Amino acid sequence: MAAARPARARALLQQSVSARLQVRPPERGAEAQWVEIQRGLVIYICFFKDADEDLVPKIVNMLLNVKLSENENGEFVSVLDLPGDVLIIPQATLGGKPKGRKMQYHANIEKEKGLELYSQFVTLCEKELAANSKCMEAGVHVKHGTYGNRQVLKLDTNGPYTHLIEF
Amino acid sequence: MAAARPARARALLQQSVSARLQVRPPERGAEAQWVEIQRGLVIYICFFKDADEDLVPKIVNMLLNVKLSENENGEFVSVLDLPGDVLIIPQATLGGKPKGRKMQYHANIEKEKGLELYSQFVTLCEKELAANSKCMEAGVHVKHGTYGNRQVLKLDTNGPYTHLIEF
Q1: Any keyword Cytoplasm (chains A, B) (predicted)?
Q2: Chain B interface, Cβ < 8 Å to A
Q3: Contacts of B102 in chain A (CB under 8 A)
Q4: Which residues in chain A have Cβ-Cβ distances shorter than 8 Å to B153?
Q5: Domain boundaries in chain B?
Q6: Which of A5, A109, B74, B105 is most buried, most CB within 10 Å of its CB?
Q7: What is the pLDDT of residues A14-59, one digit of tens each?
Q8: Fold observed for domain B9-160
Q9: Could you give the CA distance from residue B125 to residue B102 in angstroms, rounded to a whole number?
Q10: Which stretch of DSSP H or E encloses residue B117?
């Protein structure tokens, strides 16, 4: 048996009835800013050191097409076919590994490169939804968190139906 | 390099400000029943085929003692030291692996054995919190979902701060 290749990215998927994510914390008397989605998919994404630009389209293709969203008939379809909203949350903590009683993040990508891949990931998700006629007709949205922020999240599910996919 | 041993269990941790989980769906005119926690830890747990009873105390020990909960001073401490509530959610979908555009669950433990380990896991978490004087003084709670149910969840976070730990 060959040794498993270390993952280059890790995505966590949860199903949303509605979700609200802070994209700017409150400061200097200004209220916090939030984005919101309704029914659809919450994607938590974390890149590891070996991730590169070529990987991004593969991840987007998988996550938008994997059949994990329940439609009115109880069938599982892709978020594109639902069609549903998408909320993207950068989540570096997903790359952690326990050592003793602490988590270490040695395998995580460095911050600048991570931001670059995250931005590409968001842009490509937006593009894919915009290119999908079902999504456009239904007026579904892609929303996303601010890389590097604390991801203050309120999530309402009909079953989080949590899946992990590594790349 | 040796081939990685397949995981026997997978736990996903998210931090809660408050969380509400349905433990009985509405039926025959009776309203749904929910459990609720306040600040603390949400544990999604999934057992794979090779999991056994010896593994349960190891998982409980790790999850209750790993320092992932933020206290008032911004330090990360264990949920026992916070002290915080614990919400346990059985989440078989976490064991899925993509094949084409569908997820497969071939590595998951069989249902009966999974229920047995899940029950032991819940009981041991309850015992550990009950044995901890800080937790007892603060009156924190362990709540848990019903194995096999749809886990209808509402989660309010100050940052889900999502971690994956495999055993």
Answers
A1: yes
A2: 1-4, 10, 12, 44, 62, 65-68, 76, 78, 89, 91, 93-94, 96, 98, 101-103, 150-165
A3: 66-67, 76
A4: 155, 157, 159-160
A5: 9-160
A6: A109
A7: 999 999 999 999 998 899 999 999 999 999 999 999 999 999 999 9
A8: D-tyrosyl-trna(Tyr) Deacylase; Chain: A; (3.50.80)
A9: 34
A10: helix B111-130
